[in-house]
Amino acid sequence: MRNTVVLLDRRSLIRECLAECLRGAGGTLAVRSFADLQQWKASPDYDPAASVVIVCVKGRKETETEIERGIAELSRASGGVPVVLMSDVDELECVVRAIDAGARGYIPTDVNLDVVVGAIYLIKAGGVYVPASTLKSMQKSNGAHANGHGMFTSRQAAVVEALRQGKANKIIAYELNMCESTVKVHVRNIMKKLNAKNRTQVAYLTSNLFPDRSGD
Known about the structure:
CATH architecture of the largest domain: 3-Layer(aba) Sandwich
Number of domains: 2
């Protein structure tokens, strides 16, 4: 397995400082740093089979530009290697849009170095990293979901909990006394609200929104 992290940042000093920090704290990680994708591709160190590509940006404008164009381009150039966005902007909308665009992680610059290293290893192992603040924002926006208010209605909340348990539509319909077609409508509406591409993303994005009832 490749163990190289490619760091892309146009700001030379910040790029080199972060690269040195990751080399010191990242264990066996090999870190290569470049100004942008073009410089990386022109380098003898260009290796599209790197473990993770981290793109560092500042401000909302750069973050939105990278989400709109950069993530998809990088994913193609790196042959499907996980792309992570590191940004000064720590807002729910940007995080969700980045993950929806194909990023495998979103790291705000206000986290400590140990969190960054942990996120890299999580993503290398096939996981997806989003900041804890994002989950808290989703929880806040969800509000009193148990009473049917906020992000989800009470029926949608019940469907979400079933999705988190990996249940099929037919089972959900039986347990919640619904038609299967109604369950499908609820699933579509839930995915739309969360900007999720599939049921797995729904389960992940709502993992901290609902209480653990395993002991019920």
